[in-house]
Amino acid sequence: MRINHLQFIKKYGWIIPFVGLAFTFHHPAYAQATPTETIQKIYSFYQPQSDNDANDIGFDRTSSQSSQFFSPDFLRVIKEDDKLTSAQGDASIIDYDFLCNCQDTMDGIIVRNIQVLQQTQHTAKVEVSFDFIINGSDSFQKDDPFSTDHPGQQHIYFNLINLHHHWLIDDVTDANNVGIKKDWKEELHKFYNSSIQ
């Protein structure tokens, strides 16, 4: 027996909005479809603040939003470090902001370029070039300690993985692909007897 499409829509059409909502809530708040989008979104936390409050600049890697940007393995290292070092009253083993390789974000960061160096279906390597904003200015004077007259002098490299169509940072590396995650784990084993793999 053929089903009349109009009758079907009248009878079951009310379900469609709820199905749409279910899919909306299923996806993470910061679902990034490309490696570039992941990097753009995490660096949006480093944009200059209109009220010039430097305390609001940067990304707290221990926040609940971290799972939207870091792979499960990298996040395990962050949480293990936070748990073990805090229990001893110690600072983090990585006692700097690895997203800018700095202790102080100054007045914010201007991202100059995001370049995908390598990408497969499951992994990507990305280079980020940026500059710090100093005293509210991103003009590059030769006597500035963090910049030169050529924009984009700071470089950070990221290894990302594609997990369920969601690109996540799995390690932060140098130009030679030497990452912080392996050494971080080793330090946790050595100084805190961590069992993290």
From TrEMBL:
<keyword id="KW-0732">Signal</keyword>
<feature type="signal peptide">
    <location>
        <begin position="1"/>
        <end position="31"/>
    </location>
</feature>
<protein>
    <submittedName>
        <fullName>Uncharacterized protein</fullName>
    </submittedName>
</protein>
